[in-house]
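Hi,

I'm pasting everything inline rather than attaching a file, because the server keeps stripping attachments. The sequence lines come first, and each chain or strand is labelled.
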Amino acid sequence: MEPIISMEYYLIVSSIMFFAGIYGFITRRNLIAILISIELVLTSTDINFAVFNRFLFPHQLEGMFFSLFSIGVSAAETAVAIAIIINIYRNIKNVEVRNIKKLKD
Amino acid sequence: MDFSNFLILRDELSLVFLILCLLMFDLFASASGRRLFQPVACVLLLLQILFTAFFSGDSAEAFGGMYTTSPLATMVKIFMSIGTLLVFLFSKTWIENDHEIAKGEYYYLTLSTLLGMYFMISSGHFLLFFIGIELAAIPLACLVAFDKHKPASAEAGAKFILNAAFASGISLFGISLLYGGCGTLYFTDMAAVLNPANLLQTAGMIFFATGLFFKMSLVPYHSWTADVYQGAPANVGAYLSVVSKMAAAVSLFLIFVKVFGAMAQNWKPIFYALIVLSITIANLFAIKQKDIKRFLAYSSISQAGYVVLGVITATAQGLTGLIYYLFVYMLANLAAFGIAAIVERQSGDARISGYNGLYKTNPKLSVLMMFALFSLAGIPPFAGFFSKFFIFAAAIQEGWYILVLIALLNTVISLYYYLLIVRAMFITPNDNPLPAFKSDTASRIAMTVCFIGIVLAGLASCIYNRIGMISDSSFNAPVAAIHVEEIQVNTALPADTVSDAFSGASQLHEVQN
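And the predicted assembly:
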């Protein structure tokens, strides 16, 4: 059966997610919010892989595999990032970016 | 099933075995045995280096081309292991005094990142490369935040992991665009279908490069470097600045020359701008630094700029120059970082003013620091001069005259700020300099190795010749184009399901037709 929604719409969604993630990474002022923005970026790439695989190269599974691996890796990354953020919270009782200013020129 | 494929991975397997040995040792050793943790780790790593060096094989590939190895890859892996060994030797006092309980973790986290870097060098597919780069980044974040009771270390860890995750996200987006544009993620297959006029592929390539530029901390991607080096434990900073950069630089060369070779007209202008920016801006920032680790961070950014000079040439001579440069830089920078760590430990203060009059009380340490800084600056009798000379010569051969001129002018600037520290140690008077002290045996062994390396690596031409021979043969080796088709034919798998999992350019062409 031919898919009803064409590929461009999926790519528009993933691009919006990607650039929203970049915007969030730059503008958010809380470490957890920054981490969520990064997750948006990583998830948008998973959509891309799945969509390209489904629409352009339906006879192989490379893109699907890649998105599986990238989900796993981003989970590991998030776990470590959360651990480090908790450690910061223990040290300064705060996860606001403006209070993290020990290291600077 | 045939398991002989796994033997091709012997470098990685020996490292995994080493990590498991250390884990078991950490688990079962008695309290008195654990005191020997550092010597045991160093001896085992030394054995692994010898194993890799003596059992190195010819070029081979495993798992349908996912993993490739060559004498060049093995050589770079040996260099990275030597760098790690030197870092281990330098970290004895820090790890034993501050982290008695967690010291095992330090060793196997470091070795895990090393494993990731091995896979980066040896990958033949973007998936393995991505996993390698992540395996190299995630444990490194734990290492940066290792001094968990110090707010500075935690802050550096957060800055590192957030920036690394962001860079890898953008890099991953680039890989997804490349997949959409090429239909395959095997390096050799992709090289055959890349077209410089294709905008999707070009955008994918540029996004992809972010991850490597971040790891090498070239200038638009450098802002994390100084903070992380300053906040991280000094030995982890040394590891980040040397081994991690070595892996990133070599894979940058291999991927951009071998895979994106057809798109050279697209990426060379970008690299040109990055080199000029990295060298110049990092030099200007280095001059005003007051903290020795921040200073070394900016110095390492500008050194990374010189390394990319080898990539932009895209010749065998450039590859030789790049690896030789990284080797020499490794010895000099590890010596400088090691001494910074020792002095910081003694004085509890990382400011450059703490080095005033160091020569009066600790002459040997000061002389080694001076040699290391001279080698980083590129003053003739030391190895740094020859490495800069070879990399400039490779760039001149390809006609990058203006670029080499800019790099040469920046060498003069860098000489100024390296001499600031030498002046502090030898000339600036100080009423109460750091009293004379004796560092531990392991650090002294490491410093001796660095000293010999800095002095001899330039004069012993056999090292450069050997690197040149290996990289020439590897660079000129015929690329096994579209090997996946061969595998599909040879293994005679049922064509419907299993071979679909392997991508093939043949399928791609079908789809395009």
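Residues 481-513 of chain B have pLDDT under 50 and may be disordered.

If the labels don't parse on your end, tell me and I'll reformat.
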